[in-house]
Each structure stands twice: as C-alpha cells, then as structure tokens.
Amino acid sequence: MPVNDSSYDREAVRRVLDQARAEGRTSLTAPEGRLVVEAYGISTPGEGLATSADEAVALAERIGLPVVLKIVSPDILHKTEAGGVLVGLHTAEAVATGYQTIIDNARAYKADAKIVGVQVQQQLDSGHEVIVGTVTDQTFGKVVAFGLGGVLVEVLKDVTFRLAPADTETALSMIDGIAAAEILRGVRGAEPANREILADLIVRLSALVTDFPELAEVDLNPVLATSTGATAVDVRILVDDNAAEQPYRFTDEEILASMNRIMRPASVAVIGASAETGKIGNSVMKNLVNGGYQGEIYPINPKATEILDRKAFKSIADVPGPVDVAVFAIPAKFVPAALEEVGAKGVAGAILIPSGFGETGNHELQAEVVAIARRHGVRILGPNIYGYYYTPENLSATFCTPYDVKGGVALSSQSGGIGMAILGFSRSAQMGVSSIVGVGNKSDIDEDDLLTFFESDPNTDLIAMHLEDLKDGRSFAETARRVSKTKPVIVLKAGRTSMGARAASSHTGALAGDDKVYDDILRSNGVIRAPGLNDLLEYARGIPLLPTPQGENVVIITGAGGSGVLLSDACVDNGLTLMEIPSDLDEAFRKFIPPFGAAGNPVDITGGEPPATYRNTIALGLSDPRIHSLILGYWHTIVTPPMVFAELVVDVVNEFRAKGIHKPVVASLAGDVEVEQASEHLYRHGIVAYPYTTEKPVAVLGAKYRWARSAGLLGD
Amino acid sequence: MPVNDSSYDREAVRRVLDQARAEGRTSLTAPEGRLVVEAYGISTPGEGLATSADEAVALAERIGLPVVLKIVSPDILHKTEAGGVLVGLHTAEAVATGYQTIIDNARAYKADAKIVGVQVQQQLDSGHEVIVGTVTDQTFGKVVAFGLGGVLVEVLKDVTFRLAPADTETALSMIDGIAAAEILRGVRGAEPANREILADLIVRLSALVTDFPELAEVDLNPVLATSTGATAVDVRILVDDNAAEQPYRFTDEEILASMNRIMRPASVAVIGASAETGKIGNSVMKNLVNGGYQGEIYPINPKATEILDRKAFKSIADVPGPVDVAVFAIPAKFVPAALEEVGAKGVAGAILIPSGFGETGNHELQAEVVAIARRHGVRILGPNIYGYYYTPENLSATFCTPYDVKGGVALSSQSGGIGMAILGFSRSAQMGVSSIVGVGNKSDIDEDDLLTFFESDPNTDLIAMHLEDLKDGRSFAETARRVSKTKPVIVLKAGRTSMGARAASSHTGALAGDDKVYDDILRSNGVIRAPGLNDLLEYARGIPLLPTPQGENVVIITGAGGSGVLLSDACVDNGLTLMEIPSDLDEAFRKFIPPFGAAGNPVDITGGEPPATYRNTIALGLSDPRIHSLILGYWHTIVTPPMVFAELVVDVVNEFRAKGIHKPVVASLAGDVEVEQASEHLYRHGIVAYPYTTEKPVAVLGAKYRWARSAGLLGD
Lengths: 716, 716
Hints:
Two copies of one chain form a homodimer.
Chain A: H1 10-22, H2 30-39, E1 47-50, H3 53-63, E2 67-72, E3 85-89, H4 92-109, E4 117-122, E5 128-137, E6 141-148, H5 151-156, E7 159-163, H6 168-177, H7 181-184, H8 195-211, E8 215-225, E9 230-232, E10 235-239, H9 252-263, E11 267-271, H10 280-290, E12 296-300, E13 306-307, E14 310-311, E15 325-328, H11 335-344, E16 349-352, H12 363-376, E17 379-381, E18 387-390, E19 395-398, E20 406-413, H13 416-429, E21 433-438, H14 447-456, E22 462-467, H15 473-483, E23 489-493, H16 507-511, H17 514-524, E24 528-529, H18 533-542, E25 553-558, H19 561-573, E26 577-578, H20 583-590, E27 603-604, H21 611-623, E28 629-635, H22 642-658, E29 665-670, H23 674-684, E30 688-691, H24 695-710
C-alpha cells in the first residue's frame, strides 16, 4: 500500500497546532491528537451515527470493517434484549442489511420508540498490541520507534528506531527487526498482523512529524494490528516549537572545498612554531619536516627568524604566498587574536591543538573562536586534539610521531588517548593508513565532514571512527548511508552503556535509551559497529584486505576438528551462513581427505595431513563457484609445519587471484609459537590470519559480510 | 516456606506409576498427572463439594484461598440470581459465613429446593502465567526449568535451567534469573508473584523427579502465580524407565588414587618407544627425557634393546619394578593386547595417544579397550590425544614439544588442535602452567577426574578447560561447585551454537536448547564461562595474578578521558560496579589532579600529567579501604612515557603489597608501540595490562569478580 502524499490533510493539522499554540499548550487533547493523526490517514477506532443504511455503509467503509452496529434510542435501554446490537459485520452488504435489521428489531421491540439512528463502531476485539511513536532526539532529530505493546516488552525493551521520515522498506525492516518479530507473523495459530498496513502507519506517522517538526513526541500506544488493519487506540502528542530547530549544515561542495585544501595543503603555517625541544610547536615542526611533507612550511613566531632551517614569520600576515592550513600550537587564550589573522589570510583550516576550551568548561572561548572562524570562512579542526595525518601528502600535522605506512584506512578519534592507541596499533600491525584525524571538541569539523572528504578521496578505502557523540547524527547517518555503499564505515561508539538521562515525558521517550537509538540508526544506515577498540582496529586492518564476497556460502576447512567446532560457533555469532554442501561437492572434498575425515561443513581434513591435503581442499574451495568464502583452521603438526602451511595458502590463493578468482580467505592457526610468524606471513598476503583464536578471523569476515550486505554488493 | 520432606506422599506416586507401567504407557493421564504432583504438595486448581460450613472451610484450606462458593442444587438453575455464588473469599471465616449465606439465600429463593451442597472452587482469575518443567537431559540428567508462560516468552526463549533437585536458594535464583524477572515483581501496579511459594513449587517438582527418575519429562504449563499461591493449571507427564539410568561413577578416593599416580608417576613406560626420528614413539621418549622427568622411563619395543640411552623391554611384563603410567604410541589395533599386559602389570594410567577409535567410528574397539582397562583397574586417558604435561614433575608425556614455564594454571582440551593452541599461547605469553592435558575421546578419564585431581593439587591455582561435551555433566557440575570455592574453574564450551536436535515431546524439552542448559548449569555451579578460545587463555593467564577483590567498588583512574569512557562501557559489559565516590574521597583525588580534570569515577587525571599524578592517585586508590579494585587507563605522552608509567605502577603496587594491601589492578595502555613493552613489564609484575584495548583488561577483572562472587569470597 503506497502512501499517497496528497492524502495528507496538512491544513487540518495546522489548525489544531495553531489552536494549541494560541493557548500556550505543550500537549494536545485526545480528540486533537486523534484529529492530527487521522489527517495523515492513521486510523483511530472509528465511530459515528448513521441515520440511513447508506450512511451506515459509508461510515463503516470510512471506519474500516468489521464494525458493530448499535441502536441509538433514548427509549431503548436494553439494546441487546431489543435486538439492537449486531457485531462482526464484515461487508458493506452486511452493514446495510444490519442497519435495517436493527431498525426493524427496535420497532418490533417498542413500536413508539424514538429512534435517533444507529451507531457504527469499529470492532477492535482482536489484534496485536504494538507501539508506534516518535521522539525528537537531540542527536538524530525526528526518530520513529516501533515495538510490541504491553508490559513484558516494556521490561525487555524490545523496541527499534529509525530516522523519520521512514520509507516503506525501512518501516518493514522495523517490523521485522524486533526480537519478538515472530509474534507478529502469527505463532500457535494466532492471526498475523498485516505488515504492509503496519508499515504504512509507520510511514504516515513519520511523515507527519517531519512535516510538523513542532510535534515533539507522539505516542500511538497501543496500536491494534490485525490481518486487515492497524488502529491507533490511544494518541498522545506533545508539542514544542524548539523541537523544530535544525542544526546548521554546510553543503557537500562547501565541505569538500575546505577539506581538500586542509587534507592536501600546498602550504602549512605553524602558529607558535618553536625551536625548543619539548614544546608542542617544535614537535609539530619536526613532524612536518621529518615526515616528508613537500609543501611550504611557514613557522610563525614573533621572536624567531628561523626554525628548523625554515624562515620564520612574526605573523601569518607576513607570509608571502597563500596558506591552506594553520596549525595552532599556542595557549588557548591567544587563539582568538591569532585566528583573526589566520582568517584574514584566507586559510582554509585552523588546526586547534590547544586545550582549555569546552572540555575544561571554557565554552565562551570556544564559541568566540568558532564565531571568528565562521566569519572568515575558516573551518576549525579541534580544539583539544593531537592534530592529523594524511599520508598521501606525507603530512604529519601533529605533536605525536610521524606515521609512514601508507594504505587505504582512514581513522579518526574523538579522544587523544584513543588516537595514540590507533597510532600504536597501526604501527605495530603495519596497517596501511591514509589518514588519522583527531576531532577533539568538534567545535566545527566533525565526522560528517571527514566522511564526505574520505568518500571522495581516492587514497581511502575504508573509514574507521571512534566517537563519543555526534553533533548532527542525522547528517552523519545520511552521509554514512551514501558513503558506505562504496567504502566500509566502521564506528566505535563509546559511552554506549550510559543511558541518556532523558526526561521520560512520553512512553516512546522512556524507551529511547541513547545507545539503542544510536545502534539502530547507525546500523540501518550502513555503518558497521565495532563492539570495542580492538575490534575497531582489527576490522580496519582486515576488511580492506579481503575481497568482497559474492554470496553467503561460507566453508570451513580445518585440520583440527576442535577448531572446526569453535569456528562454526563464531560463524553463528557473526551472522555467517555455513554452506549446505551439495552432494557432488561433498564427494569432491572426500577425494582429498582421509576416509575418517568429515566432509560436510566444516570440512575436517583431520590432523596429521600433509600440505597437499590443505592445498587440494583449499583449491577446491576457491575453484567451486558455489563457495563464496573460506575459513581455514590450521593445526600445527610435524607433517605440515606452520610456515609450510602459510606459504602453501599464499601460493594457492595467489594462483586463483591470477585467474581472476578473488574470495575472502581467513585463517585461525592453532599451534606452538611458530604460528605467530605464519599468521603474519598470511596477513601480509591478504589472508586475515590470527594465532590462538578462532573468534577474531571470523569476526573480521563477519564485519566484511555485514558491510557487503548493507552495501548491496552480495550476489543473490 | 521450607519444604517438609515428609509431606511427600511417595506411595501415591508409586501407585500411579505402577499402574502406568502395568499398562505399558509412556504418558500419564491428566488426572494421574494431577495426582502425582499433588502428592508432592503442588497445588492444582482445587475443587470439591462441601455439605457443611466446616467441610467448606476444610476444603478451602486444602485448595488454598481465595475460593469461590457456588450452590449445588438441581432445583436452582440461575445461581447468581438466587444469591448462590460468592467470589473472592479470602479467609476461613469468610468461607464459613459464606457457606451459611449461600444456603440461606438458596432457601429464601426457593424454600423447597433440594440442596446437594456447596461447591468450593479455587479462584484463579488472576496471576502470572509461568512454566515450570523438568526434562531428563542426556548430559545433566534431571534438569528443572523455569520461565514465563505465554507465546511471547516461547518466541524469546526466556527460560532458565538448574540441576534437580533444586534447593530453595537455587529455585529463587531461577525466578530472579530470567530476563523478564521484573514482571514477576509486579510492574505498572500489577500484583507481584510470591517468590517463596513459586520457589517452593520448583523445589517440590524437582524433588519429585529426583525421587521418581522414571518421570522423564514434566510440564506444569501454565502455573498461575499470584501473591498468595502458585497453581499448576495443566500437568503433562511423560514416563520412561530409561530416564532413571545413572552413569557409572568412581568415588573421589578412587579418582585420586589413580590420578595421583598418573600425574606424579614414579615410572613411565612408553609402549611403542622408537629410536626413529619422526615416529610418535620417538617424540614421546625425547620429550620425557629432554623435559627433565626424573622418574624411571621404560621404552617398550620388542625389537630394540636401548632407546635414547634407556634400556628397552620387549614387553611391559619384563620391566623389573612397578610402573605407574604407560604411554601408548602404537597403532589402535595393537592397543587391546598391549593393554592386557599393561593391566596385568598394575599400571595406574594408560595414555592412549593413537587415533582410530570412536572418533573414526570404531566404537567397538574403544568399548573393548575400556572393558579391558576396567577389568584391570587401569584408567585410560584418551584415546586420540597429544598426551599430557605435568610441569611440577617435569613430565611431558606427549609427542608435542616440552613445556617448562611452571606455574599454577592447569589446562585441558578435548581437541588436539586446541591443545596445540594452548601450548603456543602459553609459551608465547610465558604463562606459568602446572598441567596441560588432552582428553580426546574421553573413553574413561574426563574433566571430572581432572577437576578432582587439580582440586587436591597444591601446584594448581586455576583450572581452564576446553570441552565440546561432558560425559557426566551432573558429576562435573557437582565437582565444579565444590572446586570453584577455592580455585577458579574456567570453561570454554565449544559447539554452543549448535542447538541439540532434541525431540520436542514436551514444552520444556522444546525450550531446553543444549547451550542454554549448559550455560545455566555451569554458571550456577561456579564455573566461569569463557566466550571464546582467546578469552579462555587470557582468563587463565590473568586471573591467578590478580588478588581476590574484597568488595565490588571498582575505580577507574585514567589519563585519557576517551579511555575512561570505553573502560566504563567495559565495566558495565562485565558486570562490574563503578564505585560512587564519597565526597571526602572525591576531594582527596582532586588534590592530585588539575582543576579541569574530573574526579568522580572515572578519575580523569587528564593527559600530559607527570608521573607523580599517576603515582599519587593510584596510591590513594590502593590506600583507601573503600576502594576494592583499580582499572588504569594510560595515555602515552612525552611527560610520562610508557616505561616510566609501567615502572611507577609496579613500584607503587609493590609498596602497598609490602604493607599487606593487595587489590586487583588492571591497565589499558593507549599509545605508540612502546606501550607493548610497558604492558609486558606490568604483566610480569602481576598487573594485568594490555595495549590497544580497553576491553581485555576489564574482561579479565570481570572474570575474576564472577569467580570471587560465586565462591563467596567478596566482602559484604
């Protein structure tokens, strides 16, 4: 049932809201609420008075069948006794006939009774109780919620959220996305809810709050959902003009114009550059110079003439040519004045390393700085950051150490400590990185700007972000939805267990714990969520190495039966599908493995097998087009030592790559310490491999699959 | 309400079961079922006919209040009209009075009516629907289940299991242990269920199936639980004499007598010892000799006179002195004959390395071997194993490589591959190990025997086990319950996601997925479950190093605010309690940290602080007796480099240890690659520290807490 936009009666809603505003009310009355949702085609339990059979039919059709008919007469008190009540009228004909029957019965019962008419009421004696609501989330704006109704679901908090407006597909994903979804499909012979009609109601409600953002919170609780309808039994609406406020947004063109100059600057000025070791202004200079940055570097220091063999300037105003980026290495209190000069110079980005702004409670100073920047068209990164790296330009605009392993992973962190962990892990794992960015207080540039730049950046294949909040979650989600179609977006959302201390003025509001809202909205917009810091880093490192799988069929080939069981567990944990091996393929595997080995999936080649058994089974897994991914479980034996295994796997995978066959291959290595070197060898050749764990390789493959699915890249 | 054992009417149950058996039935009729559970004091909806007020009161008291009274008279059809129905009678007095009122009303209504009496019915118009049931689990035997009733819970599978018989404490833990437990406590003004009465019903049902093990499955579904009662509305019972079978068990004394000889043998024979490199019989000999084992080593080989400078014997019968252990390195088919000789020699343990038994489908051979061993009083380890290590005796009775880092961790694995991963991880992490044991096919010696030995072993502080199944889960659970009071028992249960393909002949049976049963029973008997292989290994490595915490108050001290947030997330994930810092303690912390730092918890000392700030705050955390554990978040800066941090932490922790103050301290290090060395330094000194992860140190601390709680070692 497609929603017909023109069916929305905006004027009716406007009249109600104008009235409420005129009276200074923050909530609507029940009849007002009903009127508002009905104006958007949401059914409420209908009723009305008919004075003819035609009117009864018209009413019934407007209300929705089935209906109950009841005689309305001041002279008939015992309606049932009088034959004045008919229930379960499912067709227009039944209503028309029923109307006449009731009138006839009434007249027969009491010939002189004054008959006012027949009340037509929607019959609501069955159906699933669900809740549909909307809140105005401080991060995401208008958010629509769906869950089962009733106290049990309230206790279990089985509810799901999406950005409003939601389209039909999104609304259907909500209905299917709650833990108890099976209930709505009808279990133990119960009547199922009509998914399409319920989705339509979600679409309509989310359209309503989008059109009228002053509708701060709406509860339709319960909605009775049957196989033929969905009716909002109770409607509760809170209004608040502040709920209609929108955050300021730059256009993508504006973002890219600035970010391109910031990430690939022709020239960088260091405000507060210093020759003195231990000073931040010295570390930044050293990192720019030693990192190999080839653009112009301008030290700015009123008291120096030369720093690290570069001519120093008293003010950025004195620099002869244009400047793209100014890195601030001066105390917070000097930033406003310096930023005025930076702005006047036409700099694209001010990199505010200093702390002492919002994070220490100095919100005024931060606001002042943002205002100066906005006035000059300067974008600010920070304040309170370690700086940023962009390896394609050999740019290490940071007081940390340079990073030089180039590659496709772009990372950002909201915290300096986490930034250092990113740097250390990357260096230790030799992870190829395009960029590491500290966003700190996010007074201006935030993850949304970074996503937009990294999307356009040919040097970036994957974006991994640590964040504690989002300034404009809606914008981030919308950008992520687009970007993630081509590049995986991994997010570690910290603070996920601290439920928002939200004033629970509505039922939906009370259910909307921060993390559940983040989780549902990020995931439904293509973001892969990392459960922890180490996962963020391992996903970032592994996902770009794995080719995108062409389908869901995963096969485990293992030398250790025990690893096979644990790898299977990990597949289920990570939403991976162990392929049902067709009999011809089973037969083919059996040719290579001992008679007491187990074909099926896992393919258990058994311990003590020579390299050829691994090679043959892996080659079969790569060659058969019905298999889409391989998980290898290696068992260290004298017959096939770790490096022999690693080299044969690299060989056979390369052999197939040369033939144009690219499938994700991950490996778990069980054995003595030599498996560490073997795992490294595999990883260096694009096979995501770990020693002493069956969980990690499968988790990385699972993350790759989640991305491939949401990007629509998996085959049927 | 304590259960009065003598209140059980065993004879009544026996009569019903004898009748059913005589008729060859596998299920009881509804009245039989009702009779059986009533014999154990479980209420069913009671009713009966009273012909006097006294009888009515007696009936009501037997049935349970409140009751409904109804006139029984062939001459009164409209009972209500006649004043012949009274509902909600909550006291004996009300019943007595009510009886008379009804009789009087009836006589007044129709003086000549024939009055048969008054029907006394239990009033069951309210209450929570719950399910209580029992199944006969192939691993654990009699298992009792509890969950909410109704279709929603069936969909969400919110049900919990314990061994039967369950005591009152256990039964209460079940009621509190389901996800929807809050429902039973009464939400939104609903009447709560009476926990004690419900627990009593669980205790009674579990006693019933323990006394009558032929009761294969019992469903009480639903049980209506109110604030004053619990009534089994429907009773369904399946009977099966096979369900009464008990597995064979050795006594603890028998187990220890054998295991002590096996783990600390004075002499070891190697059946199939070989001088030829590459043979298993050669590897075993080398490992025994090179591992430094000081007992007698007897190579057995009909064709050799000397192997590795040890005199070889044609048969174990030829060995002059007694032999404690025989390691078999011969093909499976030769095992029975050799085992006869081994048995005749009075060997305590036969270590069956060879494969080719049950795991390849050769169950007959395995059964034959077990029968031979049982006949001779020999215990079998294996077959199909890598052997075993016991480092206090320098014993490496395995074809793998020797292991020599001695310590308190005992490990076992059901799979050879996982055993190799244990070995490699241990060596790589330099984990101090007392024993590593492969149990393989577990034809005889299993985890239960190992637990019993390790409990008594002064060299073992913690037991970590990989297992795919348990031969006798009940015995294991009972042993683990006892052992875990003094030594942590960590279990990685593989195959947890493959739900048992159980024939769902009862409701409870259908809900009893393998893993949920394992999970509930292992946890409720003190076992710490590791979610994955790496967790098993990290828990094993870390838990023994941490002192047992004296209470729940955990404090995070962090240099990086971002790490603090992630560490807090991890605390919630791991069930740890972030201490509410009292104001005097808050004040004390504030003295050491910058004004813009955050006291509270996490204590955010802010980045860029010198070593003294870490030292002072950590010392405060160790000295204040209200704080029980510390989690440190380190941020790599020039001011406090990684090794400076690591050394100061070790210093200050040692300082307090010297004063007798032992608290668990774990650390997450965020920084460049130098944090790896710093983490190792910390770990070597008993501070569980990891680089690049906030999750792992907290997970290990969380596991330590789970153990300390279940062992009853935490303070109030």
